[in-house]
Amino acid sequence: MYVDIIEMPELKAAVLEIPRDGGEVRKAWKKVSDLLGGHSAVQDPDNGYVFIPEWQWATEVTTLWVGMLVSGFEGLPDGLAQVTIPAKRFARLRVKGDRKQMEQCYGYLFEWFDKSPHRRDVREGSLGFEKNALHPVNPFDIPADEINEFDFYIHAPLIEPAESSDPYSGIISVEVKEAGPRRIVGVEAFIDRNLVQAHQAVPELWQRIMPRLKEVGSVKAPFATFGLYGYEPPFGPGQNFRYLAGVESAPHSSEPLPDGMADRVIPGGEFVTVTYKGTASGLEQTWNYFHQVWFPLQTDYDAIDEFEFERHDGRFQGTDNEQSVMEMHFPVKRRVQERRLTDKIVVDEKGRHLLQDLRNENIRMASFQGSSFHGIDMRDTALRYVNFVHSEWEHIYFAGVHIRSIQMGGTVFEDIRRPEAPMSRLDAEPGTDGWVNVEPVVFRNSDLSTGRFENCDLSGVQLNGCRLDGMTIDGIPVTELLDDYLKRKEA
């Protein structure tokens, strides 16, 4: 489950007020549809609406309004009440499934409000609503005691940032959207945070590309500029990145790239689109919101860390204009449904995640072929007689691990990093942020023959009692280097 944040314009509805009862909802809908069927004022004939008095959640919801959206109230049949909801933001959650799933969705939404920075507007007069699709099956035609399949959207009104201490006051909408591949053409640079300030280097790229946008051929409409961030593992806050500032061009354009420009393709897929309003200096709210609010409070998606992009269309009025609207797009992929191995849980000390508690279990003679392991705490675990052929390990915390009797033919170690700390800090909880191990990595009694070390930092490496036949450094045999060294030393 996940919650969208959407902006809605002012809504007008012609409704009937009823007590909260499934049978009464269906009677009211029949009367409303008989009165308004085919009426020119009806705005959304494909959906039926049930409005909920938000202030009644504090005790018990006893009243509902059932009706249709209309463009205005003039000329409507007698017997219908009028409801107007001002333009505002809503938290939106889709309910799709049986009655148990519906109950879980409502529970999830209450829990989401408890954990998120957003406040539900439960003041007197505030209305939320359920939006029910009338096709292919009209749920109001199915008796309340028989219906067991639901597909509708809950809309819960939000208190606006100006009325609360919302740390994400610039976020105006958050939605999961699907998009096809995009080809971006522009100028690109690698942003090394040790050498440059990102908040200075990125604007400089835009200053370079903006006067040259007319040189890019086959620019796609509607016009928008894109800033594409590319990341390499290990992923994390404050890391270096590749940035491409440009515009979207036709994917198969035969026109040559302008001098000094590059092109990259943004893969198609699903994206969490976080829309922000304000000056560019506050755009960081979008990253913080995605990583600290949206992602940890949902259960349907995993993040794709390799890239993300910003998009500026006609709503962008300049970096210093508080009315500017910008979008950040974070790629995600559907999470494979997990299977629980135990009902016991334990809280992870580092990320405060709830984990299945398999501590001290003895698992023998098991096949996990093709399985996916994500967010696993393997501290102090013993692995013996394990077949890892063709497996992939990524974002692994390997400090203090003792590996022996391993067959590693064809194994590739890539992007291996040591902690950036002058000394170890081993007194904190192992594996948490306060625990750092920079002790030497030791290869002992190991066969590394025919191995290759490419673009590696080997400063401070010690080779003691090792066989070096055929070993080369940049093509020079190490044995010859050592012989030459000994001869010079003896001389």
Using the coordinates shown, work out and report the CATH topology of the domain at 4-166.
Multidrug-efflux Transporter 1 Regulator Bmrr, Chain A
What is the overall silhouette? Answer: globular
The count of helical stretches stands at 5
CATH architecture of the domain at 4-166: Alpha-Beta Barrel
What oligomeric assembly is this protein in?
single chain
Q: Count the E strands.
A: 21
Which structural class do the helices and strands define? alpha+beta
Helix and strand sequence: EEHEEEEHEEEEHEEEEHEEEEEEEH
Question: What is the CATH level 1 assignment of the domain at 4-166?
Answer: Alpha Beta
Radius of gyration: 30 Å
- What helical percentage do the residues reach? 10-25%
- Proportion of beta-strand residues: 25-35%
CATH superfamily of the domain at 4-166: Regulatory factor, effector binding domain
> What does the largest sheet look like?
9 strands, antiparallel
Mean pLDDT: 88
Low-confidence stretches: none
